[in-house]
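Design job #97: recover the sequence.
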């Protein structure tokens, strides 16, 4: 298991010349996406196109509803060039983590006070149901124990990050890990569009949409674009901060779930070998998630001590996080080969999709009635 220092140095080691072409494409697509959806070149930047264009012109009005994050992701999904893979992967992994850390500035105490107790309970209950159901359905459908565990964790907690965190704990074969990562990534992208569309289509309130978005999407990076899309569709208040807060409740359960699966894996090994291997890996909280929490706590303290300056700094950090997140999501699209992902995970896709749809439907019904 790597140390936090080694994780940090990995950011620097991975930033080599090979990432330059892909990063250039991600940044260029980001600038284009902001220009086409907001008339600026970055979040909070100066206007280059008239505001009326995004009201009177139906094409630009539609693009404004889609938003720069989603548009950048979609554009890069259709760019398939190996030269750009390294830069796309770097942006989709490392820049995404930096954006997530900065997003902590949005999740301050005043925002968390608006979270509903019923929403938190529902999210945790559906998380547990998703993982248990994955193990039961996976066995009935003939999938391995490891595949079911990884699929349930990825769907229930935080997508690829959860999958990669649990994989070494249960000594999962890399072929299963790659298949689950590909399928979970694909479903997460679909969710960016599907989840806010469902929330808007059934007439959810903002409070319900926050629980639904935060409780169903796979990646932290999926939550903000989905929340932005819902806000654009509904014309209501920004639901991004609380959606992110609800999502972090699921992320916080990663170490607990990984520990449980580690214990179960040991029991399985003992049943076969009469002992649990001494080199079993223990899960750790990822460093960027710790920094996310520290950012939220620090921003809360700053706003409490100096509200005016604190809110100004918060606004700047949020703008920066959205811009970096857009570059990162462009990287996710750039590094994903849709055809290859579907080919690798074709036997797993129906199982993971069914599991996720059950998760969505259950949380949808509970949210509509109880939140």
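Job complete. Output follows.
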């Amino acid at each position: 298991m790597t140390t936090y220092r080694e994780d940090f140095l990995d950011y620097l080691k991975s930033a080599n010349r090979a990432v330059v072409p892909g990063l250039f494409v991600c940044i260029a697509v980001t600038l284009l996406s902001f220009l086409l959806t907001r008339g600026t070149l970055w979040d909070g930047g100066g206007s280059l196109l008239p505001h009326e264009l995004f009201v009177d012109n139906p094409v630009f009005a539609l693009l404004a509803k889609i938003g720069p994050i989603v548009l950048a992701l979609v554009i890069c999904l259709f760019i398939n060039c190996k030269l750009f893979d390294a830069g796309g992967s770097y942006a989709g992994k490392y820049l995404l983590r930096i954006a997530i850390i900065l997003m902590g500035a949005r999740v301050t105490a005043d925002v968390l006070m608006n979270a509903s107790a019923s929403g938190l309970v529902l999210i945790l209950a559906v998380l547990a149901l998703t993982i248990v159901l994955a193990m039961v359905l996976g066995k009935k459908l003939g999938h391995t124990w490891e595949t079911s565990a990884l699929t349930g964790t990825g769907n229930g907690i935080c997508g690829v990050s959860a999958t990669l965190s649990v994989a070494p704990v249960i000594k999962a074969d890399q072929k299963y890990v790659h298949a689950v990562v590909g399928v979970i990534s694909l479903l997460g992208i679909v969710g960016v569009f599907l989840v806010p569309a469902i929330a808007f289509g059934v007439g959810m309130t903002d409070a319900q949409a926050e629980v639904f978005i935060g409780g169903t999407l796979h990646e932290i990076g999926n939550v903000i674009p989905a929340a932005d899309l819902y806000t654009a569709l509904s014309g209501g208040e920004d639901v991004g901060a609380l959606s992110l807060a609800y999502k972090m409740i699921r992320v916080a359960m990663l170490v607990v779930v990984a520990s449980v699966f580690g214990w179960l894996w040991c029991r399985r090994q003992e049943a076969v070998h009469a002992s649990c291997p001494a080199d079993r890996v223990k899960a750790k909280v990822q460093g960027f998630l710790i920094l996310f929490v520290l950012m939220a706590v620090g921003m809360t303290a700053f706003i409490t001590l100096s509200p005016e300056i604190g809110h100004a700094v918060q606004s700047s950090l949020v703008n920066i996080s959205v811009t970096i997140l857009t570059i990162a999501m462009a990287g996710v699209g750039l590094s994903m080969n849709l055809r290859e992902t579907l080919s690798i995970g074709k036997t797993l896709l129906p199982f993971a999709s069914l599991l996720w749809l059950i998760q969505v439907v259950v949380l949808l019904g509970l949210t509509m009635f109880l939140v």
